[in-house]
Amino acid sequence: MITGPSTDPRAAQPGAAPPKRRGTELALLGFAVLVTLVAQAIVDLTITGSLRPDMALFGGWITGLWAVAHLVVRKWAPYADPLLLPSVALLVGLGLAVIHRLDLAAEQVDATATRQDAPVQLVWATLGVALFVVVLVVLRDHRVLSRFAYTLALVGLVLLAIPAVLPASLSEVNGAKIWIRLAGFSIQPGEFAKICLIVFFAAYLVDKRDVLALASRRVAGLELPRARDLGPVLVAWALSILVLVFERDLGSSLLLFGIFVVMLYVATERASWLVIGLGLFAGAALIAYQVFGHVQARVDVWLSPFEYRDAAGYQLVQSLFGLGTGGLFGAGLGGGRPDQVPVAKSDFIAAAIGEELGLFGLVAVIIVYLILVERGLRTSLIVRDAFGKLLAAGLAFAIAWQVFVVLGGVTGLLPLTGLTTPFLAYGGSSLVANFVLVAVLVRISDAARRPAVPAGPPRPALGDAPTEVVKQ
Amino acid sequence: MNAPLRRVAISVLVLFTLLIINVNYIQVVRSEELRDDAGNTRVLAEEYDRERGSIVVAGTEVALSVPTEDRLTYLRQYPQGPTYAPVTGYYSLVYDNAMIERASNEILAGTDPRLFARRLADLFTGRDPSGGDVVLTLDPAVQEAAMAGLEGVTGAVVALEPSTGAVLGMASTPTYDPGLLSSHDPAAIRAYWEELNAAERDPRLNRAVSDRFSPGSIFKVIVSAAALSTGEYTPDTVVPAPDTLTLPGTTTELENFGGSSCSSSGEQSLIDALTVSCNTAFAQLGIDLGEDRVREMAEAFGMDGEEREIPLTVVGSSIGDPENDAELGVSSIGQQDVQMTPLQAAMIAAAVGNDGTLMAPYLVDQLRAPDLSVLDETDAEVLGEPVSAEVADQLTEMMESVVAEGSGRAARIPGVTVAGKTGTAENAGPDHNWFIGFAPADDPQIAVAVFVANGGGTGGDVSAPIAREVMQAFLDGQGE
């Protein structure tokens, strides 16, 4: 078992212990479970007219799942932010209802077909909660992670590289070479690589931020870094481009680079990094547009989807039709035709929600994401160690950036990239990986809100724990 | 690190606000546009859940919806698809709908206000809502004869009941099978659509109403009507009929068909000029009458350039805008910029046959609620009186002569007097071949227009026999 220090040497002075808010979490989880079950029931009643026979089993399962998660948080992370887990529960529950709804739609089209995507997704959610529990029980102090930074970096890179190296038959689905397909299972290793790399970025940047924050000269109010310090950002940039070239994965490429640049900015407090990052991105985007047919096609479809309505733009146009038809209130769960959008259950699940739950439903989902992200960033603000700060910021921003890029794509705000919608969309890798991500966030938020222990002799700081006063 | 963190938090807020603004834009501002887009099959799919009304001809459904096992509850079928396709159109998941399926969509889909009370009742009784039926004026014998007559050529036939304007037949070739566009298999629909796109002549075009062509000599009926209506001409009035006519202000020599001579004396009676379809005589006559008289008569027969709803949309027919006497002369023999739809051509014959009274053509006899009660019935409506009964009689006499001893002899029906006029119109390709006429001449029951695009022969060879078959089919049916 990995254990960190039981007390935090730099904790605030003892005072009134902050409330743990576990009751709040329990109540909100109860609400999420209620929404999950009601959504399932509405889907069943609208489409088949009766509740499915295993509804009680499903209800029990879901309730048990969140009860276990809650109890584990209560025991092993008692001061954790009370909004993180319920936000996740709400999104997962809604996703299950929509996936179940799409299962039924498939069965309507072909009466002989039985589609079991929702039960499979429930299994993945269960595995996700299991990993969530494992992370909280095993990882007692997030700072321990920084010890494994370079190992995790290696793991992340290997995970990222595997699909590129594998033959297309084992790694390619719909043109994106981002899978490992073995014996009926498909894993998107990129989802896990993302977390490994964020941990590495955090540890690395905490180590090097003083150097990276050094300015050489000022240009137009920006303090530019020294040329030789451009190394790390160029490496991240090159990595993203490799992902784009060898895996044709615009989304992950954009995601990795965006996360790194933002973490670099947070670590160094130098806005010049943002400008440099943006410049590098713009350059790469311009070249990618010229060189890669698939990038160009995405951009063309984005600019004028209706011109390509019967070809490359079909999916986006169908998505827009669904959203437009949904209007303010939506067709009601089970009342629309979200299955008209190809692969609605994964990339385009937001279109299904917009069509059936309307503008109000979709905006509610966006706000739940916003709550999740802002609670993550808040954790980052109040946690006392620099590594925790950067790690929480990276993880929270990863969710935000991914949601923005995906929902922006589905609604025509940005070109389509092919990232999954965290927690909502069908897909095991994404779901399980995001559970791990949130588990780490919960762990950090517990440390952030935990009251300082009564005074005692400060223990020697760990090698990786920063000893300087945290900048405010 | 907290200052940049706060900025990141605010940036995330801004990004998510952008998302929310964008979905507001799509789901509120653009909602209606997206919902009504022809490519959005969701609303159509909703329609498929309702039993769409039938299109009925003489008690037989030519378009009907039958329940299916798949998720689109009803499938549209067209038992005699190609025969009625020009009128019914199609009802497609992918390509919207056309012709009556489009023009009468509200009744068929059940959304017409006249079905409101019933829909309200459906809501309370739990009865599945369904659409109303559209009963057409078509006569199956006429329609089948018309389609059979056009087999192998590109063209159109329109048959009208002169006394009411009811459309008895409306054929257009080449035709297609609307059932194949109305299936539930988008891939098959697209494949068939592409096949139709690739056809040299678009089978989806209803040439009877959706396109217009040079009428050639059938336009001489209108010039004759204009002449007779002045009171200065009778069928026996002798008019100049030279072998060639030098068009005023030009050196262009207008010839008769095939360079033939109308009369050895260089002049002939008006009735003879129409009987042999003398170009020089009618060009000169039109010039003598002047543009205003020719134009007014053409407009009185319906050639006013305006679209018409019968309820299919009929494109406007007109004589164009002759700029001088030379062009007026050419226009008077139905060339130059004179353009008419086959329906317009049939309206000319029908008005002459109806003692000079032009009736508004109509295709829909009745609209019926799902319980077969009549929601609406089309009443015959007078569009105008282009010529007096007396002039109509004179025109009839002249047109009888065309069929009895002139260019329209192929339209003769034993035991029945037929009145008619042929037309052979020059155009970019081989000549268009026309025939308009009505029968019986003394008590007209049916008026027809036959148009064969680029038939290459004469109106008398190519189109008159088709008109005969169509009129015969109708008159045989009436005798029973």
List the helices and strands and how they pair.
The complex is a heterodimer of chains A (472) and B (480).
Chain A: H1 22-47, H2 55-76, H3 84-109, H4 117-138, H5 149-165, H6 168-171, E1 180-182, E2 185-187, H7 189-212, E3 215-219, E4 222-225, H8 231-247, H9 250-268, H10 271-291, H11 293-303, H12 314-326, H13 349-382, H14 386-410, H15 428-449
Helix pairs in contact in A: 1-2, 1-3, 2-4, 3-4, 3-13, 4-15, 5-7, 7-9, 7-14, 7-15, 8-9, 8-10, 9-10, 9-14, 10-11, 12-13, 13-14, 13-15, 14-15
Chain B: H1 2-29, H2 31-36, H3 41-48, E1 55-57, E2 60-67, E3 74-77, H4 81-88, E4 91-92, E5 96-97, H5 99-103, H6 105-109, H7 116-125, E6 133-136, H8 140-149, E7 155-160, E8 167-173, H9 178-181, H10 186-198, H11 220-229, E9 238-240, E10 244-246, E11 253-255, E12 267-269, H12 270-275, H13 279-289, H14 291-300, E13 308-309, E14 313-314, H15 325-331, H16 342-353, E15 358-359, E16 364-368, E17 374-377, E18 382-384, H17 389-405, E19 419-425, E20 432-439, E21 446-452, H18 459-479
Parallel strand pairs in B: 1-6
Antiparallel strand pairs in B: 1-2, 2-3, 4-5, 6-16, 7-8, 7-21, 9-12, 10-11, 13-14, 15-18, 16-17, 19-20, 20-21
In short:
By secondary structure, chain A is mainly α.
Say which CATH homologous superfamily of one domain in chain B is assigned.
DD-peptidase/beta-lactamase superfamily
CATH topology of one domain in chain B: Beta-lactamase
- Please count the helical segments of chain B: 18
Radius of gyration of chain B: 27 Å
Write down the overall geometry of chain A. Answer: globular
Weakly predicted, low-confidence segments of chain B: none
- The overall pLDDT of chain B, averaged over residues, is 89
InterPro entries (chain B): Beta-lactam/transpept (IPR050515), Beta-lactam/transpept-like (IPR012338), PBPA_dimer (IPR054120), PCN-bd_Tpept (IPR001460)
Protein name (chain B): Penicillin-binding protein 2
Pfam families (chain B): PBP_dimer_2, Transpeptidase
GO molecular function, one term (chain B): penicillin binding
